[in-house]
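quick one before i forget lol
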Amino acid sequence: MTELANISIILVEPETPGNVGFASRVLANFGVSDLRIVGDDPRQEQDAQIFSVHALELLESASIFEYIEDALEGIDNVWASTARIGRNHSVTRAAVPLPHLPNPTTLDGRVGILFGRESIGLMNEEIDLSDIVFTIPVSPEYPSLNLSHAIAVVLYELFHKYAPEAEPRKNDPKPATMKEKNQVSIFFDEVVDIIPIRDYKKPIAKQVFRNLLGRAFMTGREVATLTGTIRRMRNYILDPDKYKNE
């Protein structure tokens, strides 16, 4: 099962085949497999195929429709992306910011997200087919996003908030434990105690090192390497003749 399995991306009359290729890649990035295209079929266009790269299979499996109503067949919740923000007096069509969209994975049925033409976006009558109209918060000086970029922003927002966490794989790096971080701190403290640093600066140096460890995401392997290195530093400082050939 893919991460956002109940989402369909619907492109309404895309004007640039290359954007459709890029869009296919974006869908694959975020575990969305259902691409629907209203209008001309761009799947065999050279730019679409080139820019889809490793998502060519997803591109070629896209469904093509003549009318938007047909593309919405089997869609239970329709969300429309627009750069035009509704005014307060137009409550029914007021656009909500992207971060306020509901969790699509908890909704019954399939969620279809509409994206309009690169030049003019969605028509009013197409927006009227949606349950929710939303916008991507951007600078008001230039509110229009490239089609594939807009899809990427939307799917990233939904993915990092709502996609179920994947089961860790056997070879995934394991984060360092508190015990492992404490051990490297102990060796560092010993180094600080035996090198020529003024006494009042030693607690500061030790605390700064702990702060760095606390802020950094470190794997167990990384901390083990750091621990071994600092331990050797300590041993060499204490007895350089004994440890210089290690």
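fyi Residues 158 and 228 are 42 Å apart (CA to CA).
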